[in-house]
What we know:
It holds the Pfam family Molydop_binding. Belongs to the prokaryotic molybdopterin-containing oxidoreductase family. The chain is an alpha/beta fold. The protein has four domains: 4-69, no CATH class; 91-172 and 396-496 and 536-564, Rossmann fold (3-Layer(aba) Sandwich); 176-388, Dimethylsulfoxide Reductase, domain 2 (3-Layer(aba) Sandwich); 628-741, Barwin-like endoglucanases. The protein has a six-stranded mixed sheet, sandwiched between helices. Strands 22-28-25-27-26-29 form a six-stranded mixed beta barrel. Strand 16 and strand 17 form a beta hairpin. The site of molybdenum atom (MO) has 4 residues, from loops.
Amino acid sequence: MKWAAGIPGVTHSVVPALTGMGVGRTVKLLTKMNQKDGFDCMSCAWPDPDHRKVAEFCENGAKAVTWEATPLAVPTQFWASHSILQLRAKSEYWLGQQGRLVEPVYKAKGDAHYRPISWDAAFTVIADRLNALSSPNEAAFYTSGRASNETAFVYQLFARAFGTNNLPDCSNMCHESSGLAMEEAIGVGKATIGYDDFEKSDLIIVMGQNPGTNHPRMLTALEDAKRAGASIVAINPLREAGLLRYKNPQTVRGIVGKGTQLADLYLQVRLGGDMALLQAVSRRVFAAEKAAPGTVLDRAFLDRHCQGLDEFERHLDDLDESAVLEATGLTAAEIDDLAARYMAADNVIITWAMGLTQHKKAVPTIKEIMNLLLLRGNIGKPGAGAAPIRGHSNVQGDRTMGVWEKMPDAFLDALEAEFGFSPPREHGHDSVQAIRAMRDGRVKVWFAMGGNLAAAVSDSATAEEAMTRTALTVQVSTKLNRSHTVVGEEALILPTLGRSEIDRQDSGEQFVSVEDTVCAVRPSRGQVEPIAPGLLSEVAIVSRLAREVLGDTIPVDWAAFERDYDTIREHIARVVPGCEGYNQRVRQPGGFVLAHGPRDSRTFPTPTRKAMITVNELEHVECPPGRLLLQTIRSHDQFNTTIYGLNDRYRGIKNGRAVILVNPDDLSALGLVDGQQVDVFSEFPGDADRELRGLRAVAYPTAPGCAAAYFPEANVLVPLESTAEGSNTPVSKSVVIRIEPHTERLVAG
Ligand SMILES: Nc1nc2c(c(=O)[nH]1)N[C@H]1C(S)=C(S)[C@@H](COP(=O)(O)OP(=O)(O)OC[C@H]3O[C@@H](n4cnc5c(=O)[nH]c(N)nc54)[C@H](O)[C@@H]3O)O[C@H]1N2
Ligand SMILES: Nc1nc2c(c(=O)[nH]1)N[C@H]1C(S)=C(S)[C@@H](COP(=O)(O)OP(=O)(O)OC[C@H]3O[C@@H](n4cnc5c(=O)[nH]c(N)nc54)[C@H](O)[C@@H]3O)O[C@H]1N2
Ligand SMILES: [Mo]
């Protein structure tokens, strides 16, 4: 399939909604999604309610809301009839189909089952175990990026009041590399654009991102940009349907017409080849400037705002073009074409996602994006900028609110001034470090605010083993997942309200707030009755837990937080930079946009007060002969570890996720044929091979030497020790693998 959305997109979105939720609930929720008085879609971080139409959702947003708002609840007898081991044998898909979690459940030491428990008893168990630890650092508090700003703020406050910075989050596995590279380059780790910039742009380069599936509403922005005259370049080892051609289901033209051709140039780069490509383009920019001085570089901008230009130019003088061709797998003509387009455009936006962040050299690669943009002043002017497109709907807000294992001292100082206790200063564990710490017995209590770390993090086998070595695992969740089946000696599941549900507290109905990928903060109000009467909100859970664990040792009025979320927002206003007047501003129509120095005024809060052009040594992944580089990707029918269905429509894959996509030439060179059952082994120095058996090989036009399989299943192949330099993000997009014809595993004896 070469085009995305259109009529199949709309019918695919509405059909599951009608079957999963019942008609009334569906219509109510889908018409309130991403509207100014509605709730924020819990799928990706691209809601863009300013450009709203009546049905402001995409196919995958509709799947996300259907999945959450299902009328199905896990019945009480479920826990007696399924042991934890039996649940562990079930697929992620099956677990998600069991319905919403509606009562707290507890697994006692030695018990094989979870059993219902009261909220009070659950909080007592957690408080006893936390308070018995010999150091607060023996606990870790994970967050997945769906938590609201209010939850995130109260949660990090609780962890720090308890005494630890062990606040790993999903961002560690996601855009950590982007945040780090951008902080170093321009002093702010967030996108320098607003949604309106797309229409003002001349050239949009989409790198390492599959928006048709993962940020479907971004296709509308690309289509609008295209109609306003922009050209679009896609850089991706896979030819993703959403980037080739798009039919907008919200316009009649989109439904009946042929759709808009999106990418004017499609570069099928090799996995991990982007750093070489970006350096080669920057080198061409310098060469053109040399040939026609004063016409290519934005000298005024560079002189006034940047540092490091000359070193960068000298470094690129030595760039080995043959190494570039090998790393990228592209022709010199293709690179020339990209460079010419870049230089011909006054305003350029570069967007990216996991195709860039999950590589060993992710941080320097993203710094090369910043270098290239800075050369022609493409930061802080209309229609131009750097745009990491965030994943989870509030992953960016959670960070703003302090969920990070290494928040800067200024934030901790502000917490101290506001609440009158001394937060710990020692950095905590990120996600990969937390797994190591559980494996080695250094973290004994694991608390997760959402998410599914056992499945999401690299090296599933090690991760699961690590979680089972803890004394207590506690997971605040809406639905069952794999992580609930890999438990500590004791374990708790605490069910919670979903974002689509009305949140009633003693002072009345509450709303929460979220920040999207372009720093826009807005309220989100639940719309439907909660699935069950006994559910607590995330804020209520943290507030009650904090009271139970800390008593009145710390002067914080936790009960007030639960009663009225405005109280939390008053603290946010005083602690979090840029959130002054939070309660008032978030209530303005459409919310507000957080200040951003580089975007708003070309002020760069780096140590030098300049934007930093950096020198990065080129290195690309060596792939030994007979081996391929594997990337792990999302299908069209999943949200991270949540599996909605077994198809990947835009890639033409049906009825099963156990596939590996391989270039047809590579397949035949390996003596394999399309459709054959194969076993995949990953090779990492100093480690035994990891294996994933029984995949179906699919001949697929990916870049030569590259392969792709679905996350989370393929996480067994990603070594825990293989992480990006600087950000420690698992290297999920370039795993060295060997493929062999499938054999049944030999059983010893
Ligand atoms: N429906 C839906 N929406 C989602 C999600 C979901 O699972 N389902 N997940 C959310 C989350 S948390 C996130 S972070 C985002 C993820 O959004 P994406 O980053 O789009 O997700 P991936 O499936 O990881 O796709 C990576 C893309 O990068 C390409 N790529 C891989 N390696 C390279 C490389 O070396 N160079 C280049 N140039 N390209 C490369 C792949 O071919 C693929 O197109 O989506 C968010 N939105
Ligand atoms: N190999 C490989 N691994 C990857 C990636 C990859 O591309 N390849 N991508 C990485 C990325 S980008 C990310 S962001 C991580 C994702 O890592 P996580 O965020 O940990 O995983 P999710 O699958 O998004 O979490 C889903 C679970 O969250 C719970 N949940 C859903 N809604 C709510 C809610 O409103 N409240 C609460 N409390 N719980 C809720 C449900 O129980 C659900 O099962 O995975 C990473 N792992
Ligand atoms: Mo993500």
